[in-house]
Amino acid sequence: MTSDKPLLYRFEFKTLKCIRSIVKRLLRRTRTKVSKTRILDDLGKFGVRRGDTLYVFSSLSSIGDVIGGSSTVINALAEAVGTEGTLVFPCFSLVGNEMTKTLESGRVFDSKTTPCTLGSIPETFRKRPGVFRSIHPSHSVCAIGSKAELITQGHEDCNTTFGKGTPFDKMFHLNAKVLLLGVDIRVITFYHYFEDLTENFPVSVYCEKEYEAKVLVNGKVKRVKIRAHAPKVAQRRIDHRDGEVNREYLMKYLISQGVLKRGFVGEAKSWIINATDLMEALKEMLKRNVTIYSSKEEIIRLQSRSAQIELGSNAYELLGRSNELSM
Predict the structure, then answer these.
(1) How many independent structural domains does the chain possess?
(2) Given its phi and psi angles, is residue 67 left (phi above 0), alpha (psi -120 to 50 degrees) or beta?
(3) Is residue 296 in a domain?
(4) Does any domain span residue 320?
(5) Predicted pLDDT at 205
(6) Containing structural domain, residue 274
(7) How far is Cα 64 from Cα 196, in angstroms, rounded to an integer?
(8) To 5 degrees, how large is the angle CA 291–CA 59–CA 39?
């Protein structure tokens, strides 16, 4: 006699998916319509200006029920920076969300056709006429505007994915603004730029093995040498589940320094920071022995020590005042 349990499980699973779909449709109907005008107004309040180099991480669903979808968001961002500015999106194309799996796949990267795996907005942007895309098997970027070609060219010839000469290096020197549109600070690629530029970085973030990847350059296959992030080390990063305490610690520090600005674009809770300010903050964190790989326990110990130092300082100050009064 066979069990009906698997059949029942499939029925329950399909029913649950159906309920979720209905709930999502109902929520979309009740959400506020978000127009291009509203997005532009919100970007202006955020300090996005004509001439900016703007590097954008995004979540379309977080912005709300956008009239015209991804294209409207892109149009608003492009208008905000103007033709004299440059709009940049990460256009990563990861297999299984891992650099190693991507490089082991044997895929030939084609900047014209390889899809972006980061969601609707950057994938729509990739297909836009006039957009330049850097050539990299896993971590390309797309850009449009006055510095687009400069930012994207030569990525395939760089010694590292994120370091000197890469699009991230060029954006840093252009003092790009990093806009987190409905996503939080866990996604910022400039963390890896900092790692690649810092001598004797305390964490070995790369695999020992060097991979050979294939990319199309001017219609011909070129083999490039790539170092991949070690998957086990990556699991400790700020962007993973256990990195919440680390994210909160860094976020509070950035806000306290006045360099991370909070606000809303449409209905999306969003953040903006200059790349140069972020690099200075990461240098300060490193002085405290904190990196994006620091564990929850390490952050808690650091916070405890800081609290003890502050308590001791306050007690010393009170003692000094007491002595003054007794004189």
Answers:
(1) 1
(2) beta
(3) yes
(4) no
(5) 95
(6) 22-315
(7) 36
(8) 115
